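Lecture 7 notes: from sequence to structure.

We start with a single chain of 293 residues. Read the sequence below before looking at the structure.
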Amino acid sequence: ILSPLRGGLLTQFFLLFPRLNKNTMAHQYFWATPKRVWAVVLFFAFLVSSCVTSEIDTHDNAENSEISDMIEGGRLYDNWWKDQEGAEEPQIDHPLWKLQTTNKRSKGATWRCKECHGWDYKGKDGVYSRGSHRTGFPGVLGSSALPVDKLEAILRGETNPDHDFSSFLSKSTIQKLAKFMHQALLDMDQYIDSPTKQLLGSVDLENGKQVYVKTKCSHCHGEDGIRVAESKKEYLGTIARGNPWEFIHKTRFGDPGEIMPTIKVKIHPEETRTRMPSGEKSGYTMQDMLDLV
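Now the structure, written as tokens:
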């Protein structure tokens, strides 16, 4: 607290009260006068308050930065080359893709984290245990138990050279993806019944409508949720019913990349954002997002 008092501020203080630091009549008078005493008290109180406020602001900024990194990591998990400036979609299959034969996708799709580990983060033990997305690769739900630096090492291929993303992702990008896996993964089985794709527990439809309005979802998607969709399978209602895990993930973290120019034409005239907003950043609870589904 006292370190900021050195230098300019302390010098200005003594200029305000000349010869305060000498054993003179002025010095004695200064300390004997209540108004002057209170002036000193208030001055130092102001300095201490400024120091404390500065520390609080620094802490808040650091916390906001951590949240922003986690949110961006969620978008990277979805599709990292759309969300990382300057990145290009790989034109070869992921080196590990050859270990499976059930998922027929190729090239860029094989590099998406979600394609192996699923929107529910459980890989072969979750929704991707069946269907065209099945690969047999494990999930990442247990990653939250690992420290960020260990997750970064895994993404750099230090535990398996075939899982090395360092030639595609920058150091800071790898760190954000690791923070997402460490901080943000949720066991979706507590919210969604996998066989039926129905939400578990009660929901508040009226609150869901309010969330839709407050987040300005309708500015892009329209009141019926179909405005920017290029096909029926991209209607918000279609995704919410058919793949609630994807819907919740994108609601929490946003959609990777900027809004396409063709879509911007359809956006509300007052809308200036360049990407889909994040429910996490907007301060919505998990219940709010379930109500939105």
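Confidence is low (pLDDT under 50) at residues 1-22, 52-56. Keep this in mind for problem set 3.
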